[in-house]
Structures are given as structure tokens and as C-alpha cells.
């Protein structure tokens, strides 16, 4: 990425520390009871663990999740082969403000450029989604079509196989979240017809000024849940709810890191929390990760669930259209804005 560019430099209060706190206490949850449905006690214990993790941390790790190890190894190997190419080759599948999928190397978070390269691909394509719940709103149609590179030759097949595994795991997690809230297991399923869920391949190159830049700036995920696989090079940090400290997520081989997004924060009426997280850069090692973002249909109206609100616990958020929200957020990825992009807090109802 060349010499230090002021666009990468974080404000002093958001820069990385030389030392860090490792995230002792971040829950590690064994999903084995999902594969033994007759063990009612173990399954009920699992549901309770999920609920506690969503309340206390908004982050947790899962083991015995059912995703074949070879699928994970294959996506990592293929990702490394793609990013090892020249910029000229990678930019043949470059995404733009109108083509929202593909390769990109100059993304912004909170108006500061991230030290990373990415490649995005969606679960369902090619298709056309309305960015509004209004049926006649033809002027806000957005095309979400995958741009597949010619190299590596196995890239498309590998990506498609992997995202199917992520979808299966995501829906299992959403069912557990629903049950932990006292809802039917399939309560959230209807929001994901015509979903815009996607996988992002992340490449964080070696950075000569890790004290100034971040691989990914502080943010909360705006969707439902995120499932993160990583290569073992440390970097992900989570801001603890109770004291605001940044803690480093400990790598557990073959585990997936899960975090709750703003959709669930709103649907649960603040019963569950989405929390800020960020990615450190490294002056000695490259880092690769491959998160899956479970996102509802763009026409979805997101608001607190009726079952979880009453006179004693009224809705804490105004309803918002997911397509319009995500469109606004995407615009700030491509250039520095004069103001911070739209946040979920903008829809909070004043007490």
C-alpha cells in the first residue's frame, strides 16, 4: 500500500496500544447438543449459554459447529492465492458504488481508511433487490451480482461451497437466539427470504506503522449475526460492555467467532447487545480472515418484535427500512464523508 498516507491515521484516542489484554471470559460454547437432539437437558443448557453470551458480551466462540474442516482450509488457501496476485489482476473484479460485490482495497470505516484488501461475494445471485419496502420505488433498485475472478480457477466453486456451510450454521445460531429469547425457533426465518447475506475475504498486509493505523476501524456490525473464521494471526479486539476496555480475542483452532449485530439488538429491544470491535495491524505478519454476514432482505422493516414489547417495556427503536439503511452505510465505504454514517442509535426513541 506504499508510504504512510494521512487517510490511514487514526485519531490518537482510537490508535492501537503496544500491549493488550487477552479476552479471558469471552464464552466458548460447545454446539454438540445440536447434534444430539434427544438430550433435552444439554440442549436447554446450550440455549441458556447462548442467551447469556448475547447479554454479557455480544461475542462468543463456538466449537463442534459442524462445518467440515476441509471447507475452511480450502477457503483460506484459495483466498491467499487470490490476494497474492498483482493489483492489476485483482482490480479486474473491482467493486464500485453501483457494483457492490467483488474486490476493493480502499475502504473507509468511521471516515478513516482501513489497512486491508477485501473480496465480497453474496449467497444468492444474480438478482435484483429493491432498496425500499415501497413496491413502486423503481429508482432505488440495486444489482447485487457476484464478480468471479479467473484465478484461482477453483475460486468460484470454493466460495459457493463455503457460503452454503455458513448459511446452515447461521440459521442454527438464529434458532438458538430465538429460543433464548423465549420465541419459536423459526421466529427470525421470514426476515431472510431474499437475504443479502455475504462472505468477505479479508487480507491485512504487513503494516510498517501499526501504532497509527488499524486493519479495520472500530464499528458495530449492522446485520443479524457474523460468523468469523481466521488464520490464527492475532488482531481482533472487542470492547467490553461493562468497562469499555479493548480485549484481544484468543485464537482457538477450528473455532468460529460469533458476534451479534444491530438487527438482533433492535429485534430483542436491547435485551441483547451488539458491541464495538476492531482489527489491529501487524508489522511482521500478514493476516487473513473470512467473515460471513447474515443479512435480511433489503425490503425488511426492522423494529422491536411485538412479542418482546409491552407497556412496561415499550419499543426502544423506531422502525427502519433495512435496504435504505444499508445503502446509506455502503456509501461511506468508498470515500471520507463530512459526517459519520447512519448508526442504529439514530433510530433510538428518547426516553
UniProtKB/TrEMBL annotation:
- Keywords of this protein's UniProt record, alphabetized? Iron, Metal-binding, Oxidoreductase
Q: Does the keyword Oxidoreductase apply?
A: yes
Q: Does this UniProt record's set of keywords contain Metal-binding?
A: yes
Against SUPFAM superfamilies, the record matches this protein to:
Clavaminate synthase-like
Residue ranges of domain Fe2OG dioxygenase in the record: 195-296
- Tell me the InterPro entries matching this sequence: DIOX_N (IPR026992), IPNS-like_FE2OG_OXY (IPR044861), IPNS-like_sf (IPR027443), Oxoglu/Fe-dep_dioxygenase_dom (IPR005123)
Q: Which GO terms describe its molecular function?
A: dioxygenase activity; metal ion binding
- Which family is this sequence assigned to? Belongs to the iron/ascorbate-dependent oxidoreductase family.
Instruction: Tell me what this protein is called.
Output: Fe2OG dioxygenase domain-containing protein
Q: Which species is the source of this protein?
A: Quercus lobata (Valley oak)
Amino acid at each position: 500500500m506504499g508510504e504512510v498516507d494521512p487517510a490511514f491515521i487514526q485519531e490518537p484516542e482510537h490508535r492501537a496500544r503496544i500491549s493488550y489484554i487477552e479476552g479471558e471470559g469471552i464464552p466458548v460454547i460447545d454446539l454438540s447438543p445440536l447434534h444430539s437432539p434427544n438430550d433435552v437437558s444439554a440442549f436447554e443448557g446450550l440455549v441458556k449459554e447462548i442467551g447469556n453470551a448475547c447479554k454479557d458480551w455480544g461475542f462468543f466462540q463456538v466449537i463442534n459447529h459442524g462445518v467440515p474442516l476441509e471447507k475452511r482450509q480450502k477457503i483460506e488457501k484459495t483466498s491467499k492465492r487470490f490476494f497474492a496476485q498483482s493489483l492489476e489482476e485483482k482490480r479486474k473484479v473491482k467493486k464500485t458504488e453501483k457494483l457492490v460485490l467483488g474486490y476493493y482495497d480502499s475502504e473507509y470505516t468511521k471516515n478513516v481508511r482501513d489497512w486491508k484488501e477485501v473480496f465480497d461475494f453474496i449467497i444468492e445471485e444474480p438478482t435484483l433487490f429493491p432498496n425500499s419496502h415501497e413496491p413502486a420505488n423503481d429508482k432505488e433498485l440495486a444489482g447485487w451480482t457476484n464478480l468471479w475472478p479467473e484465478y484461482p480457477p477453483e475460486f468460484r466453486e470454493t466460495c459457493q461451497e463455503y457460503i452454503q456451510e455458513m448459511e446452515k450454521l447461521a440459521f442454527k445460531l438464529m434458532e438458538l437466539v430465538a429460543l433464548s429469547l423465549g420465541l419459536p425457533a423459526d421466529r427470525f426465518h421470514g426476515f431472510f427470504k431474499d437475504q443479502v447475506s455475504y462472505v468477505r475475504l479479508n487480507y491485512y498486509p504487513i503494516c510498517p506503522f501499526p501504532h497509527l493505523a488499524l486493519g479495520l476501524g472500530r464499528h458495530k456490525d449492522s446485520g443479524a449475526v457474523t460468523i468469523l473464521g481466521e488464520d490464527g494471526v492475532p488482531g481482533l479486539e472487542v470492547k467490553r460492555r461493562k468497562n469499555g476496555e479493548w480485549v484481544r480475542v484468543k485464537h482457538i483452532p477450528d473455532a468460529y467467532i460469533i458476534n451479534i449485530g444491530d438487527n438482533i439488538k433492535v429485534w430483542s429491544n436491547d435485551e441483547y447487545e451488539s458491541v464495538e470491535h476492531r482489527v489491529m495491524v501487524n508489522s511482521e505478519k500478514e493476516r487473513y480472515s473470512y467473515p460471513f454476514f447474515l443479512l435480511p432482505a433489503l425490503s425488511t422493516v426492522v423494529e422491536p418484535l411485538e412479542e418482546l414489547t409491552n407497556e412496561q417495556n415499550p419499543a426502544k427503536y423506531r422502525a427502519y427500512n433495512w435496504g435504505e439503511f444499508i445503502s446509506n452505510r455502503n456509501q461511506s465505504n468508498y470515500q471520507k464523508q463530512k459526517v459519520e454514517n447512519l448508526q442504529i442509535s439514530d433510530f433510538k426513541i428518547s426516553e
